[in-house]
Write a sequence for this structure.
């Protein structure tokens, strides 16, 4: 029949007084806003998911963003399963909600750190390649000083090194 029972913990997580907890799946589906862009599931029509579970076996996961009384947004992940009573055949939809805000924040920080690490590695590779080009320039200058007759060939080597450095920087 779509009736919902909640707890004090659910009321706290959803930032609503216990006596204002939803009493139907339709009311529950409209708490917060779907957050299909967070997590693995892009389920945005929560009510359709609930209704499907009222008639079929299975499980669904939903992610939603709920604004607290303090204005802070929480990311709530919900797992809902459909169960049938083997004796009566009555179907029950049971769910659990978890506040995953801190987990989502930690994942975002880890992703950012990973990107920064990748940039650091790439910078090191470019610096190494650029040092190799500078070594060619320095060696050509040293050889030209020792043997001024070879200066024309040294200029060609220097031009190739400068072209290589330019291509490296443009990458």
């Amino acid at each position: 029949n779509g009736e919902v029972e909640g707890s004090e913990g659910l009321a706290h997580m959803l930032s609503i007084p216990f006596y204002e907890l939803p009493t139907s799946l339709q009311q529950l589906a409209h708490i917060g806003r779907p957050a299909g862009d967070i997590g693995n599931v892009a389920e945005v029509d929560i009510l359709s998911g609930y209704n499907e579970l009222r008639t079929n076996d299975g499980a669904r996961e939903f992610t939603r963003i709920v604004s607290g009384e303090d204005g802070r947004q929480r990311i709530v992940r919900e797992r809902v399963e459909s169960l049938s009573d083997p004796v009566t055949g009555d179907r029950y939809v049971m769910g659990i909600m978890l506040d995953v805000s801190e987990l989502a924040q930690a994942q975002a920080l880890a992703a950012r750190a990973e990107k920064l690490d990748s940039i650091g590695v790439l910078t090191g590779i470019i610096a190494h390649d650029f040092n190799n080009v500078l070594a060619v320039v320095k060696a050509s200058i040293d050889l030209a000083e020792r043997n001024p007759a070879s200066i024309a060939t040294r200029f060609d080597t220097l031009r190739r090194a400068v072209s290589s450095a330019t291509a490296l920087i443009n990458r």
Observations:
- Residues 137 and 158 are 6 Å apart (CA to CA).
